[in-house]
Protein: Alpha/beta fold hydrolase
Organism: Terrabacter ginsenosidimutans
Amino acid sequence: MAAQRLGMAPLRDGGRVAYAVTGSGLFLVVAPGWLSHLEMGWAIPAERMFHEALSSGRTLVRYDRPGCGLSDSYDGPRTMALELATIAAVTSAVGADRFDLLGWSLGAAAAAQWAAERPETVSRLVLYGGWPNGASIGDADSRQHVLGLLATHWGLGSDLLTEVFAPDADPGTRRTLARYQRAASSAETAVALLRLAYELDVRPQLGHVQAPTLVLHRRGDRAAPPAGGRAVAGSIPGAELVELEGRSHLPAIGDAQSVVDQVRRFLGLPALRRAVPTGLTARQTEVAALVAEGLTNRQIADRLGVSERSAESHLERIRLRLGFSSRAQVAVWYVAQTR
């Protein structure tokens, strides 16, 4: 199992952004979607397995935007300039002068503009679930409705957007993702970032992208219509467009393995032998529930009618599958899945 190494990168105008590094090899920098939280995301099995798969053969660099996750608070304007300054700060902190760049959702626009303006730094560019012009995402009334809902009812709004972003996730994962969004930022930050997504227009920059580019988009994406991905690919010279099956906007949810396979192929990395797992077996879930109740291995064994050694083995496999190191982490994860 990979371990993420956390750090803080100073922004030129003040404040720091958190970043995480996993794996080894050439750099692959990820410009995140709407909201992120490096530690909480690492505790969600689907997201962790997705990033571990991308870390095999690459030094994967992820970050939280200013005001999100582990980064310092931020109450200034949300602009493309800040997006680019954040990429600059993180890549400088890890010593990445030239790297592969993957941007998804809101991060796709930032990644595309970075590649257009700083071609000497980008070896290959991958854009997932993006769009060239945020005004094309739904109509003006629906955009204002979503922004108003987030501003006045952050809990309900995060639940609604999770249904849109991750319809292929199981109910427990959707509940976890909704809580994850609320923990990743305040309502004010969430609204400001979504408004930025709606206002961005990178159409003038796309024609200046020089790096070999792969554009990925799911055909059933309800958050970002696939026409946006086609428009992005059609505007970048020589870009390759691959449309994938599925409805989820989040790349780690649904058929994450297809996303991993395409990214690795494009970057010249060998295919992984294992699929990206997203959950526990029925027995492992049963054991996790008993751990959450506070039972010891002996008590779990008695409850299930198995040997204590068998109970220990089940718990060890759960920890390995989820990437946890303690019973307490398993208990917290289970409670988060079932609330």
